[in-house]
Amino acid sequence: MPFLIDGYNLLWAVKKSVEGAESISDVELCRILGQYLGLTGQTSEIVFDGTGPYEKSGFDNIRGLDIFFSGADSDADSVIEDKIRTNSAPRRLTVVSSDRRIRKAAHLRKAGSIKSEIFWNEVAKCLTRRRRDSEPQAKQKGISEGETEQWMRFFKLK
Questions:
Q1: DSSP H or E segment with residue 25
Q2: Model's pTM, two decimal places?
Q3: N or C: where does the chain have the smaller number of CB atoms within 10 Å of the terminal CB?
Q4: pLDDT, averaged across the chain
């Protein structure tokens, strides 16, 4: 199910809920989302207010994430509402925002919606679980005494 994310709304939720995240940037947020999307195999669009940074190369090659800026003459909420309105399969869409206006627009088209704080908690849980699961069990526990003795004999250390 593709996500449509209110960029600065999610960034605000991250900064509010994660200690020490005050300095996280829009580029860093997108990279984290790219990791999450890579693990889950999902796709997403994220919309930020304004024209964005002058140098946008930091947003390049983020897997599964299309990044948009509303431009100088519009705001992200209007762009997101338009994307919801023109989506050909709104029931398959999940809108990520805590903004009532956006959530109402999603509801009118029968799209799913999730508050930014809740979505961020899911992202953080998934990334934390994945990091823990990616290490082999032997690395966590170490090898047994028998295995240690085998390797010692193999390398003629005993």
A1: none
A2: 0.79
A3: C
A4: 89
